[in-house]
Amino acid sequence: MQTANLLPLVLVIAVIAYGLAYQRSRAVAVPLGGIRNLKALPFYYAARAALWCAIPALLVLAAWAGFEGKVIQNVVMASLPAEMAPQSEGHASLILSQINNVAAGKLDPRFVPAEVVGAAGLLEVLEARSANFKTTLVVLLAVLGAAYAWTRVQPQINARENVERILRWIFFVCAAVAVLTTVGIVFSVIFETFRFFARVPVTEFLFGTSWSPQTALRADQVGADGAFGVIPLFTGTLLISAIALVVAVPVGLLSAVYLSEYASQRGRAIIKPLLEMLAGVPTVVYGFFAALTVAPFIRNLAESIGLQASSQSALAAGLVMGIMIIPFVSSLSDDVINAVPRTLRDGSLALGATQSETMKNVIFPAALPGIMGGILLAASRAIGETMIVVMAAGLAANLTANPLESVTTVTVQIVTLLTGDQEFDSAKTLAAFALGMLLFLVTLTLNIIALKIVRKYREQYD
C-alpha cells in the first residue's frame, strides 16, 4: 500500500480507537457511580488511545517514506557489476534513470543493457516487498497502540495528565522543527554566500555599479568575467518599493480611518470586502494589467508632455504594486484602530474634542504601533514581489533614479539566476544566494528599526 493510502488508514484506526476507548471509559465508570469517580473525563481516555494509536504508526511511516527510496536505490546500484559502476554523480543519475524507466514501462528493455533490465526487476521486487512490509508494520503498530490504550482505560489512571504531556511534546517538536528549519535555511544561505565570495570579492559585490552575471563557459570567451555589483539591483528594489508605498500607505491608511470612524455599517460591510478582494487577485493578473494598460498609458502620457519613457518602467510596476498592497495597510490598520479602547474615544469627546481631533490626537497615536506593523508588512510584500516587476519593469539592471526607465529588483534576479538547468558551482548561480543573504540582512535591519520605533511610541501611550 502506498504512503498516501496508509495515512488515512491510520487516521481511521485512530478514530476507531477513540470511539472504543470512550465507550470503555463510560462502561468502567458505571459500577463506580458515574463519570465523576474517574480520574479524568472519558474524552481524555479516548484522546490518549487515539494518540497512542496514531503517533507511533505515523512516526514509522514518516521515517520509512524518508529513507525507503534512498535505501532501495543504493541496493539496486550495488547489484550492478563492477564494469557498470558509475564513474560520477551524473553517470549514476543516468543509470538510475534508465532503471526507473524500465521498471515503470517507459523504456523498452531491448534498448538498454541486460544488467539494467535485471536491476529494474530487482527494483520492482524491492519496492513491492518494502510496500508490503511497511503496510504490515504501520497497521500493526496502530492496532497494538490502540489495544494497549484500550486496556489502560482504568479509573485510577489520570489520562488527562498523559494527554497533556504528549501534547506538550508535540508542541515542542513542532516549534523545534520550525526553528531548526529557519536555522537550516539561514546556514545554507550563509554557506553558499561564502562560496560566492570565494570567487567574487565582497567589495565588488557591495559597491559595484554594474550587474551582468552572464559569465562565459570558457575563459577565452567574451564576457568571461561577469559583473556582480549589487547597487543597481537594490536601487531598483528601493525605487519600486518606494513608489508602491507612496500609493498604498496614504490610500490604505485613509481608507482604514474612514471605515473605522466615519463609514456607516452598511457602507463598511460593502467597502471593506471589496478592498480585501484586491489581496486575492493573482499577481500575474496585476502584471498583465501593468504591462498592457498602465505602462503604455504612462509612456504615452510622458511623450505627450515631452518626456521619454520606457515601455517597461519602474513607475508602472510601482503603481500597480501599490494597488496590490493596499489591503495589507487598510485591513490591518482598520483592525488596529478598532482595537483602541472605547474609553479613549469617549474621554476625548467628553472633553470637547471633535471627531477628527480625537482621531488625530488620541486614536491614531494609540494605534500607531499596529499601523507601523501593517506598513512594514506591506513593505516586505513589495520588496518580495517578482511577477509584477518582471512583466512591467523588465530585467535590465539600470542604475537610475528615474521612475520612467526600466529597472529590476533583487528578487527578480534571484529567480532569473536559478531558472533552468544551472550548475550550482558557478559564480552566476551562487550570486542568487548572496543576493538572498543581503536582502535578508537589509530586511532584518529594517525590522529592528521599526521595532524600536514601535516600542518608543507604545511606552508613551500605554
Integer count of domains: 2
- Unreliable stretches (pLDDT < 50, length at least 5) are none
End-to-end distance, in Å? 59 Å
CATH architecture of the largest domain: Orthogonal Bundle
How many helices? The count is 16
The CATH homologous superfamily of the largest domain is named MetI-like
Structural class: mainly alpha
Radius of gyration: 31 Å
Mean pLDDT reading:
84
CATH top level of the largest domain is Mainly Alpha
Give an overview in words:
With 462 residues, the chain is mostly helical. It has 2 domains: 3-157, no CATH class; 227-461, MetI-like fold. It has 16 helices and 2 strands. It has a two-stranded antiparallel ribbon.
Q: Summarize this, please?
A:
The chain is built from 16 helices and two strands. The chain has 462 residues and is mainly α.
Task: Using brief descriptors, characterize the structure shown.
462 residues; mainly alpha; MetI-like fold; 74% helix
Write the layout of secondary structure elements.
Layout (H helix, E strand, L loop, with lengths): L2 H27 L12 H37 L10 H16 L9 H38 L7 H39 L4 H6 L3 E2 L14 E2 L2 H32 L2 H13 L5 H22 L9 H11 L1 H14 L2 H9 L4 H30 L2 H6 L17 H8 L9 H35 L1
Antiparallel strand pairs: 1-2
Helix pairs in contact: 1-2, 1-4, 2-4, 2-5, 3-4, 5-16, 7-10, 7-11, 7-13, 8-11, 9-10, 11-13, 12-13, 13-16, 15-16
